[in-house]
Amino acid sequence: MGAETPLRPHHLRPAPGAHKSKVRKGRGEASKGKTAGRGTKGTKARNTVPAGFEGGQMPLIRRVPKLKGFKNPFRVEYQVVNVAKIAELFPEGGEVTPESLAEKGAVRAGRLVKVLGTGDISVTVQVKAHAFSGSAKEKITGAGGTAEEL
Fold it and tell me: In the sheet where 79-82 sits, what is the strand order?
């Protein structure tokens, strides 16, 4: 034991040569016999009580709903628009931005937009969005348009 370490109860040991026997509670009617320091009757005087026991009230572990799975707090959610919808909303072609899509009711304003490749497009459009799927980029450029990520 160094001088820097404070003395703790678990450091204490009997004096060398001491022979004091361990107290054996509840072994007949002597000083620590009979009730063995547990008082008289009641749950605590008897055997063990389950760890989560709340006196008959519905235990916390059963009151709380089961939470299945995991929700990623860093997930990025996009409003999706298919190329078929862009072809339908912009039949004459032109520039397609998240703002113009929001005006036409395809997405909600102020959210991230991702263009997916379901359907066909034949008009030339200049699409600006936050994300594109590979097939959407191919279809837009194949029709003579451009796909620019914001």
Answer: 79-82, 113-116, 131-132
Compute the average pLDDT of residues 90-118: 91
> Mean pLDDT across the chain, nearest whole number?
89
pTM here? 0.55
Tokens of residue 72, six digits: 């990623």
Distance CA 31, CA 25 (A): 9
Distance between CA atoms of residues 4 and 1, nearest Å:
8
Put the strands of the sheet holding 125-129 in their side by side order.
Answer: 94-96, 125-129, 146-149
Q: Check if the beta carbon of residue 98 is closer than 8 Å to that of residue 80.
A: no
Neighbouring CB atoms inside 10 A of 96's CB total: 24
80: its two tokens: 């999706």
49's tokens: 């009580």
pLDDT on residue 35: 87
Query: Which two tokens mark 28?
Result: 């007949």
What is the spatial distance between Cα 146 and Cα 150, in angstroms, rounded to a whole number? 13
Using the predicted structure, report yes or no on whether residue 131 has a pLDDT greater than 90.
yes
